């Protein structure tokens, strides 16, 4: 296992903090950053050693990243442990999942609006949230299309 440069250490730490600020565990962000920097799949044990965290933390957070679509678990011939790599388009998958959540949210908002008294203060406020959510969905679709071209 090669020694990390100061730049790589800072990238890993920064990515962990940014993902933590977005509501994910810091270790998940650090694992993601390590995998971003690797040309080849990285082993479970190398993640433990590189990040100096427990096997349980690596296990929990790799499963989380897999569920988000930003990490693939792979096996290598003759190896007993799991390896991890970035999927072909991890960033597109992240935003597609975000769009799906917004679409689900929009359904709830529309149902809420339809069940409120017409032209009430509350209905107008929820309609405003509908418009904001529509704009977000449109912009995420544009972003997804742009990312697919990368």
TrEMBL record:
Highest taxon above the source species: Bacteria
Keyword Transcription: yes
Keywords, alphabetical: DNA-binding, Transcription, Transcription regulation
Keyword Iron included in the entry's annotation: no
GO MF annotation terms: DNA binding
Name of protein: MarR family transcriptional regulator
Source species: Arenicella chitinivorans
């Amino acid at each position: 296992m090669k020694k990390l440069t100061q730049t790589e250490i800072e990238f890993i730490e920064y990515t962990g903090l940014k993902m933590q600020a977005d509501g994910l565990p810091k270790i998940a962000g650090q694992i993601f950053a390590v995998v971003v920097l690797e040309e080849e799949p990285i082993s479970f044990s190398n993640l433990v050693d590189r990040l100096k965290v427990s096997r349980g933390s690596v296990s929990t957070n790799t499963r989380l990243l897999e569920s988000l679509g930003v990490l693939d678990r792979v096996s290598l011939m003759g190896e007993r442990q799991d390896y991890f790599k970035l999927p072909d388009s991890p960033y597109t998958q992240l935003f597609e999942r975000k769009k799906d959540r917004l679409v689900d949210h929009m359904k709830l908002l529309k149902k809420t609006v339809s069940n409120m008294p017409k032209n009430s203060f509350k209905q107008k406020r929820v309609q405003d949230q509908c418009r904001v959510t529509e704009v977000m969905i449109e912009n995420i679709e544009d972003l997804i299309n742009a990312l697919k071209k990368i």
